[in-house]
């Protein structure tokens, strides 16, 4: 096995590991294996028409982080007080890292499969846990480095070499802060709840983070407008608790000569708190952390009544909106899967949330805060800017392609052996479930918000946009790769999702233009609505019937 | 014609290639109602491939396969309604609860929701896993998952049952129950294809044993017949002999020698 450079860097800290009672030699060995496996990990791709990718995905993603880092670092160029700038800057960096930690590395931290392999060997639990945490630490550091690189260059260009010297220790401390606070948080949750609950909490937290980070990026321009005032910083009690100011303070102390008590205290926090977290983690938590993880697979039985009434409700809806027997079965199946599968929810819900927020973001952009809220709202009220909802439509329609994916795509063997007479009913049931479970609720939210702004007059418009969304979903399905619901790995769809999105955007753009044409010329909207409905019916009855079950022979051949 | 003697499944000259590799080199087989067929062979002999072809999971074979007198190459799904399958790898939509999964499978086979629900709960109770009915399958142990797969394969009361290492992970008591179930089913005219590497079990439960080697069937008959023909006492020995393997003792001795560093 390769002796990675990373490992040699870790070697520098071997003293620290030993002082926590870790068997460094074994930990290094485990780490080496993990790094080797990471390098060889090739995403499995079900579709034979997709070439397997060999590029190191992680390295690729680092470039994306550098790009993000570049955008964030623009803050450093603004003529704000240094402490304020750095505060915003670190705030965003920490937020990014936290997001990455929770969404990408939670599974690594909470992994228990690996434990079955390693712990029967003479490896003590502390050493095992140290290997796990160090593994994550390495990745987080690389990501932090990538995000910070542009900031580091711009900062040291503007503020001199001291900036560059202060920075690297900050990165180490930030990573420690993020990892150990997350681990301790998970530990506390596991202490009080069972594993299923923790997974749900993580799941919703991830979705929340994804939605928030989306909003931040969208509204960053707006932020400039708001902040374009004189900023006078006065420390309040809560500003002691802002992690971003812990890391920003040293810059103010050293570069601006700010020696006030607040800065010294907060600056000290930035060093002390990560270290305290580290010692709490290794002193108290690590030992029990792995034990608590055992709870991850335990689940308490759901209340029978709740389950029964949920099923009943579902049955009634399925009976109303589905015609065929098989369609009904797959309606319920899809509904259950969309409700239960966390991995899928994690891929799906952020974009669904984005769909709900997108038109709002555009609206907020067009509101001018300097002119006054009321005036801007009045200006919007009479206009046609509600057509921004088409952004939601494009996102929702594109995300509907996700029903073909699941974490457990191997379970799709049942499609080939079950006596399914009309495969098309599978798609119909699945699409209907997707519409009922996700599309309709999102449109309800949109309707509430937008009628509040524009008045009830736009109700027919929203209905039309909903119809157009459904039409787009059907077209995507017919034109797309036609895989059975829940039969593909998430990676399979990644490759063509960009194409789907482009095509959908084009289609959606045309729909929007036509809609705008109708509205601006005062042509009665029901004509368009009728056209949309008849297109849906045509696509549903004629287009859908062309769909067939796609056999997955190739995959089975590989397995043999 | 005697209904009992009518072949329920017939395979004629079944061939299959994966790329340039010939996996099945012409399998011939006729199966009648009520047989429990022990389908055995070394790794890579083509057992799973045969079963997957019969189930319609794998296509692209050459030869003629009839199940219930019907050519399975056709588009009809009817024959699948009378087949049950327990796969070796227990891939399952484990984000669903047991109840959700079973009612999904059962309803596709044409049962009503109430029927499935009732049947599934009763079967799970018999296997002593009823408490887990509303739990996600992710939280199941290996044995529980196996029981679930067995129930899922039997819900619709199939006429042919394909089992691939079905005892995987079951405890001794459940194994006894399951073996008894198989005997009962066979007595009621169900046909069972039993594929396993555990020779003792195959020897005991099968009414007919088929041994596959290198994509061909090299033995076919009752255990008694095979014993007579090959002058061996156990199925294990017959297996060794027919697959041309007789060095186990030498290899084992060498193995231990290496362990001890001699």
UniProtKB/TrEMBL annotation, chain A:
Keywords linked to the UniProt accession: Membrane, Transmembrane, Transmembrane helix
Keyword Membrane carried by entry: yes
TM annotation in the entry: 62-82, 88-113, 134-157, 169-189, 201-220, 261-282, 348-367, 387-405, 438-456, 462-479, 500-519, 525-543
Domain of life: Bacteria
Protein name per the record: ABC transporter permease
Record has Kinase as a keyword: no
UniProtKB/TrEMBL annotation, chain B:
Molecular function in Gene Ontology: ATP binding; ATP hydrolysis activity
CDD domains, alphabetized: ABC_DR_subfamily_A (cd03230)
This protein's record includes keyword ATP-binding: yes
A Pfam family that the UniProt record links to this protein: ABC_tran
UniProt key word Cell membrane: no
Alphabetical list of InterPro entries matching this protein: AAA+_ATPase, ABC_transporter-like_ATP-bd, ABC_transporter-like_CS, P-loop_NTPase
Sorted UniProt keywords: ATP-binding, Nucleotide-binding
The ABC transporter domain, residue ranges: 9-239
Cross-referenced PANTHER family: ABC TRANSPORTER, ATP-BINDING PROTEIN
The name this protein goes by in its record: ABC transporter ATP-binding protein
Native source organism of the sequence: Alkaliphilus serpentinus
């Amino acid at each position: 096995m390769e002796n990675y450079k990373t490992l040699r860097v870790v070697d520098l800290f071997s003293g620290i590991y030993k002082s926590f009672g870790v068997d460094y030699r074994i930990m290094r060995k485990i780490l080496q294996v993990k790094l080797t496996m990471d390098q060889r990990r090739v995403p499995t791709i079900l579709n034979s028409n997709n070439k397997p990718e060999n590029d190191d995905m992680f390295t690729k993603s680092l470039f994306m982080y550098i790009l993000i880092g570049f955008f964030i670092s623009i803050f450093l160029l603004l003529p704000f007080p240094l402490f304020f700038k750095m505060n915003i800057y670190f705030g965003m960096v920490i937020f990014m890292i936290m997001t990455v930690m929770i969404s990408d590395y939670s599974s690594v931290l909470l992994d228990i499969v690996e434990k079955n392999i390693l712990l029967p060997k003479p490896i003590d639990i502390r050493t095992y846990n140290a290997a796990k945490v160090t593994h994550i630490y390495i990745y987080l550091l690389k990501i932090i480095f990538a995000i910070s690189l542009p900031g580091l260059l711009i900062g040291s260009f503007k503020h001199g070499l001291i900036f560059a010297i202060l920075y690297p220790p900050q990165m180490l401390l930030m990573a420690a802060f993020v990892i150990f606070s997350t681990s301790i948080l998970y530990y506390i949750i596991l202490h009080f709840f069972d594993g299923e609950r923790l997974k749900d909490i993580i799941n919703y937290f991830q979705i929340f983070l994804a939605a928030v980070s989306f909003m931040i990026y969208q509204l960053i321009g707006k932020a400039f407008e708001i902040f374009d005032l004189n900023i006078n910083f006065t420390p309040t009690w809560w500003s002691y608790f802002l992690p971003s100011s812990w890391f920003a303070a040293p810059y103010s102390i050293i570069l601006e000569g700010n020696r006030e008590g607040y800065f010294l205290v907060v600056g000290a926090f930035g060093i002390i708190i990560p270290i305290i977290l580290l010692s709490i983690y290794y002193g108290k938590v690590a030992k029990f952390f792995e034990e608590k993880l055992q709870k991850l697979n335990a689940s308490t039985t759901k209340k029978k009544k709740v389950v029964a009434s949920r099923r009943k409700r579902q049955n009634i809806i399925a009976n109303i909106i589905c015609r065929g027997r098989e369609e009904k079965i797959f309606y319920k199946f899809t509904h259950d899967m969309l409700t239960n599968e966390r991995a899928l929810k994690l891929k799906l819900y952020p974009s669904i949330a984005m769909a709900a927020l997108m038109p709002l973001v555009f609206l907020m952009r067009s509101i001018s805060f300097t002119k006054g809220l009321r005036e801007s709202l009045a200006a919007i009220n009479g206009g046609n800017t509600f057509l921004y909802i088409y952004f939601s439509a494009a996102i929702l329609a594109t995300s509907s392609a996700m029903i073909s994916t699941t974490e457990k795509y191997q379970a799709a063997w049942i499609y080939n052996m079950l006596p399914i007479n009309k495969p098309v009913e599978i798609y119909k049931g699945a699409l209907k479930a997707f519409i009922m479970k996700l599309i309709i609720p999102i449109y309800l939210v949109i309707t509430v918000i937008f009628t509040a702004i524009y008045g009830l007059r736009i109700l027919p418009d929203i209905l039309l946009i909903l119809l157009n969304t459904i039409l787009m979903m059907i077209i995507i399905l017919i034109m797309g790769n036609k895989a059975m619901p829940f039969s593909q790995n998430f990676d399979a769809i990644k490759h063509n999702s960009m194409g789907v999105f482009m095509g959908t955007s084009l289609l959606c753009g045309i729909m929007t233009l036509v809609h705008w044409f109708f509205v601006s010329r005062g042509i009665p909207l029901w004509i368009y609505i009728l056209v949309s409905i008849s297109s849906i019916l045509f696509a549903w009855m004629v287009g859908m019937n062309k769909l067939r079950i796609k056999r997955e022979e190739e995959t089975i051949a590989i397995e043999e | 014609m005697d209904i009992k003697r009518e072949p329920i499944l017939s395979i004629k000259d079944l061939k299959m290639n994966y790329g340039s590799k010939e996996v099945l080199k012409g399998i011939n087989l006729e199966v009648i109602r009520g047989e429990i067929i022990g389908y055995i062979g070394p790794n890579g002999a083509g057992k799973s491939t045969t079963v997957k072809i019969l189930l319609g999971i794998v296509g692209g074979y050459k030869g003629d396969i009839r199940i219930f007198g019907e050519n399975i190459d056709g588009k009809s799904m009817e024959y699948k309604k009378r087949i049950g399958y327990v796969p070796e790898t227990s891939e399952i939509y484990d984000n669903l609860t047991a109840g959700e999964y079973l009612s999904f499978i059962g309803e596709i086979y044409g049962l009503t929701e109430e029927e499935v629900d009732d049947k599934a709960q009763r079967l799970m109770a018999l296997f002593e896993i009823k408490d887990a009915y509303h739990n996600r399958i992710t939280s199941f142990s290996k044995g529980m998952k196996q029981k679930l797969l067995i129930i899922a394969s039997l819900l619709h009361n199939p006429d042919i049952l394909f089992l691939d290492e079905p005892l995987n992970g079951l405890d001794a008591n459940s194994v006894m129950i399951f073996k008894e179930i198989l005997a009962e089913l066979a007595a009621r005219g169900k046909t069972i294809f039993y594929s396993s590497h555990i020779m003792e079990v195959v020897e005991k439960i099968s009414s007919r044993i088929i041994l596959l080697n290198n994509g061909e069937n090299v033995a076919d008959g009752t255990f008694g017949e095979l014993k007579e023909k090959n002058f061996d006492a156990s199925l294990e020995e017959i297996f060794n002999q027919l697959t041309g393997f007789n060095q186990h003792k030498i290899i084992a001795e060498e193995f231990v020698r290496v362990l001890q560093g001699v």
